[in-house]
Amino acid sequence: MFGGKLMKKKKIALILMLSALTIFLAGCGDFREPIYSDTEGFWSKFIVWPIVAFITMLKDVLGTYGWSIVAVTIIVRVILLPLIIQQANSSKAMRDIQPKMKALQEKYKSKDAVTQEKYREAIQQLFTENQVNPVAGCLPALVQMPIIIGLYHAISRMNATPEIELGTFLGFQLAEQSIVLAILAGVAQFVVLKTGPAMDNPQMKTMLYIMPFMIVGFGLFLPAAISLYWIIGNVIMLITNIFLYKPFAKEPVIVEEQKKNNRKKGGKRKK
Questions:
Q1: Which of 46, 70, 220, 261 registers the highest number of CB atoms within 10 A of its CB?
Q2: pLDDT tens-digit profile of 62-111?
Q3: How many other CB atoms are there within 10 angstroms of residue 154's CB atom?
Q4: Beta-carbon neighbour count of residue 42 at 10 Å?
Q5: Which residues lie in coiled coils (predicted)?
Q6: Rounded distance, CA 221 to CA 117, Å?
Q7: Which 3-state string (H, E, C) describes the chain?
């Protein structure tokens, strides 16, 4: 079925994204190499170094690298906010038409070629009428990844640069591993996923349980500056999720919508 194939493709895309993230976080390429203004390579020269220079500039203003990392993480998340909103709108649109998609699956459940062709046409018409693009939700995430990974690499390579002393933040040595910050980063990641689109998407629930453990695992071996970056980024995402997905008002909203639908059905029956 078209719907089943779509779900499988989304699941495969999710696994590929997780795999790509794992490779980047594991330290591919020059991840642990020092970074300077004359470091060669497109990624280092045009992505990583500008972020490092910006962090250093803010450090001169704010006094410590810790506060500079906090500030840069917030700035990057704010810049990415339009993409995050677009992703949220796409997820909501897909969620809203799920009942209609299930109804079509039930209506055209026969496996013969003619029925399946009618099903594909009905699904496509449903997407067109509701202005839904099933892959639109993935595009903002793909655009965000180079920026977020670039920030991650910048902090990691700053730690590998002898001339840069990351110092401390709230008593934590940013150049050393921190079990406390690693666990906090994992917990924050879980809360973010729990309050985001994963709460309504069965295909994303794999990420809900895998990602927090990945974050804690990496945090136990990487400098505390990275865990700090994850924590602040997830706090910003949690605030964003509260406004975009309204996770704590979710049940009342659904109940109210069901009541309205029941009233409409009741009115039609009376007529």
A1: 70
A2: 989 999 999 998 998 888 888 778 777 777 777 777 788 788 788 777 77
A3: 25
A4: 8
A5: none
A6: 52
A7: CHHHHHHHHHHHHHHHHHHHHHHHHHCCCCCCCCCCCCCCCHHHHHHHHHHHHHHHHHHHHHCCHHHHHHHHHHHHHHHCHHHHHHHHHHHHHHHHCHHHHHHHHHHCCCCCHHHHHHHHHHHHHHHHHCCCCCCCCHHHHHHHHHHHHHHHHHHHHHHCCCCCCCCEECCEECCCCCHHHHHHHHHHHHHHHHHCHHHCCHHHHHHHHHHHHHHHHHHCCCCHHHHHHHHHHHHHHHHHHHHHCCHHHHHHHHHHHHHHHHHHHHHHHHC
Taking CA atoms, 271 is separated from 21, 262, 268, in Å, by: 56, 14, 5
- 207 and 18 Cβ atoms separated by less than 8 Å: yes
- The one-letter code for the residue type at 184 is L
